[in-house]
Write a structure and sequence with these properties.
By secondary structure, the chain is of the alpha/beta class. The chain folds into 2 domains: 209 residues, 2-enoyl-CoA Hydratase, Chain A, domain 1, CATH 3.90.226; 48 residues. It contains 12 helices and 10 strands. The model has no long low-confidence stretch (mean pLDDT 91).
Length: 271
């Protein structure tokens, strides 16, 4: 089922079962955030989370860019979410843009960023909120906040360091250096670089390989991985025991074992 959102498209794949593509749709603004896009992106994730048929999400951008992040014209004019003094701005960040990393942090299903064009500033942070990243060859990536006298206001300092490690993240953030996808691959910032014309098919292929697995096991594996990274070994072991106890008594686990032993393709129902 296709749903309609402002400044964003939400489309169910007709070819790969269980996959939804969310497309940032402000191409004339290089897919910079608008207030409506913030609302739509959170609502789209809500819709994907609530739909048991959705097992994996692809996030990409319309036109030539993935996302330019914050709207610099609105920053210059101090309008919209950038209006008011320092206290009002702090509140606006919490109530608007920071809703996005909070929503991504609670999203249980895997999200793949298909980086079709430049991902700059908060646009790169958005890509880092996703679980996996595939980039078109040659696209530009940059944590460029310092270049315009800003800090990563959407949690980007944490997100980039989690993705590529603290020393390299700090270097990129302090210099504001823009890199290409190929260097991003070497840094671990992206998982794969493909030709531009192959980007969406590669993302769909990866999403399909994830969606083919038992959905509850996939979701809990994702949750366990992030909890382990953030909270350390003791919490990771406790969480792993709890999650394993849950999935080991699911119908999908029994079906997976039976199909493996019977040498047939499994049929997973999410139960």
């Amino acid at each position: 089922m296709e749903q309609t959102f402002v400044d964003l498209r939400y489309e169910t794949s007709a070819t790969v079962r269980g996959v939804v593509t969310i497309t940032l749709d402000r191409p004339d603004a290089r897919n910079a955030y608008s207030e409506a896009m913030v609302d739509s992106l959170c609502a789209a994730l809500d819709a994907a989370e609530a739909d048991p048929a959705v097992r994996c999400v692809i996030l990409t951008g319309a036109g030539s860019a993935f996302s330019a992040g914050g709207d610099l014209k609105k920053m210059r004019d101090q309008t919209g979410m950038f209006a008011g003094g320092s206290v009002a701005l702090r509140r606006a960040y919490i109530d608007h843009i920071q809703r996005i990393p909070r929503r991504f942090g609670l999203f249980d299903k895997p999200i793949i960023a298909a980086i079709n064009g430049p991902a700059i500033g908060a646009g790169l942070d958005l890509a880092c909120m996703c679980d996996l990243r595939i980039a078109a060859a040659g696209v530009k990536l940059g944590s460029t906040f310092v270049k315009v006298g800003l800090v990563p206001g959407d949690g980007g300092a944490y997100l980039l360091a989690r993705t590529i490690g603290f020393p390299k993240a700090l270097e990129l953030m302090l210099s504001g250096r823009v890199i290409k996808a190929e260097e991003g691959l070497a840094l671990g910032l992206v998982n794969r670089v493909v030709a531009a014309e192959e980007l969406l098919s590669a993302a769909l292929e990866l999403a399909g390989s994830i969606a083919a697995n038992p959905p509850l096991a996939v979701q809990l594996t994702k949750r366990a991985a992030y909890r382990a990274w953030d909270d350390g070994l003791t919490v990771a072991l406790e969480q792993a025991a709890s999650y394993q106890g849950m999935v080991q008594r699911t119908d999908d686990h029994q079906e997976a074992v039976a199909a493996f032993l019977e040498r047939r393709e499994p049929v997973f129902r999410g139960t």
